[in-house]
Amino acid sequence: MTGGTRATRATHEALPPAMREAVDDFADHLARVRNRSAHTVRAYVADVVSLLDHAVRMGCSAPAELDLTVLRSWLARQRTVGAARTSLARRAAAARTFSAWAHRAGVLPADVAAPLSSPRAHRDLPTVLRADQAAALVEAPDRRPDLTRPAEATGPDADGRRDGSATEAARQDDPADPARPEDEPVRLRDRVLLELLYGTGVRVSEACGLDVADVDHGRRVIRVLGKGGRERSVPYGVPAQRAIDDWLRSGRPALAVPGSGEALLLGARGGRLNPTTARRIVAGYAESLGLPRVSPHGLRHSAATHLLEGGADLRAVQELLGHSSLGSTQIYTHVSVERLRAAYRQAHPRA
Q1: I need a labelling partner for 264 at 20 to 30 A (CA). Which of 115, 196, 294, 349 fits?
Q2: Do residues 138 and 198 touch, judged by C-beta distance below 8 A?
Q3: Both 299 and 201 in a single domain?
Q4: Digit-coded pLDDT (tens) for 61-76
């Protein structure tokens, strides 16, 4: 077993040998066959280790001894200690995935988790910006950079170095000077980041994972590698094209270092832009404008909602966002309905 928390590793090592081997083989299956991300593998493995640890406490010594009673007992135990409905739903999904794999691999005589039910995860309606608010946020790097450019908080770059501001201009006691050319590349990068997040609706990890060659300037599309290694092409508009052109012409060359590779978006030290830093950039600009607290995922929510409100087809939005299930996209129709309902209550005399 690789990765995971110290507690999960310790619990994994305490399992009987047959269970440890099953966990390791399952993790390998998720990573190599299912092409799941390292984060997903860690989460599923942690849930399965918890399940098998519970099974051991109930007297099981091998995966083959798992049954529906053990699974239900495990979920009931999770609920007793205060796990949220979303956590219970995820853990039940992990158990079903493990059980199905174990049955196919001959580790379990039957897919014992197939009939396992779990509480429906409560899905909060995502917070979205109005179109004018989203436009203001995307254009923020071009406006009063001495006031609106947030500090680029330090964090590890993909190349292992620290990613900080190119200058100390973001400090409140030393505001950015529009006349200082060393500040310009970072502002150009910020504009591209915001344009891509809202203009295409891509995930922050997808935006940070883009390479220069992933931009098709002639067709105005980007090639995105999404969850599960699924590749898709996403169009972008004229404002994003201008921002990309400015960045590639004047911004990226100023930040690039020998270790930059082909990364499209760079941190201030030249490594690939880190998603954590990207989140701080978005939050900083939103705060500077007095907007509701928003994240890159909030911009993704906003893009999807505005597309649907503008008449886009639900399946087209599903394709753009890279959702494997239409159900994941349908939540945005609920957002639009809620907005309509709120407007009705506010304006109609018979409401």
Answers
A1: 294
A2: yes
A3: yes
A4: 999 999 999 999 999 9
Which tens digit of pLDDT belongs to each residue from 234-278? 888 899 999 999 999 999 999 999 999 999 999 988 999 999 999
Domains of the chain: total: 2
Tell me what pLDDT residue 244 has: 96
In which band, very low, low, confident or very high, does the pLDDT at 195 lie, cut at 50, 70 and 90? Answer: very high
Q: pLDDT tens-digit profile of 45-102?
A: 999 999 999 999 999 999 999 999 999 999 999 888 888 888 888 899 999 999 999 9
Q: What is the pLDDT of residue 165?
A: 35
Q: Which residue has the higher pLDDT, 103 or 321?
A: 103
Kindly state whether residues 99 and 135 are assigned to the same domain: no
What is the SS3 assignment for the chain?
CCCCCHHHHHHHHHCCHHHHHHHHHHHHHHHHHCCCCHHHHHHHHHHHHHHHHHHHHCCCCCHHHCCHHHHHHHHHHHHHCCCCHHHHHHHHHHHHHHHHHHHHCCCCCCCCCCCCCCCCCCCCCCCCCCHHHHHHHHCHHHCCHHHHCCCCCCEECCCCCEECCCCCCCCCCCCCCCCCHHHHHHHHHHHHHHHHHHHHCCCHHHHHCCEHHHEECCCCEEEEECHHHCEEEEECCHHHHHHHHHHHHHHHHHHCCHHHCCECCECCCCCECCHHHHHHHHHHHHHHCCCCCCCHHHHHHHHHHHHHHCCCCHHHHHHHHCCCCHHHHHHHHHHHHHHHHHHHHHHCCCC
User: What pLDDT does 63 receive?
Assistant: 92
142: CATH: 1.10.443.10
Please list the active-site residues. 203, 227, 297, 300, 323, 332
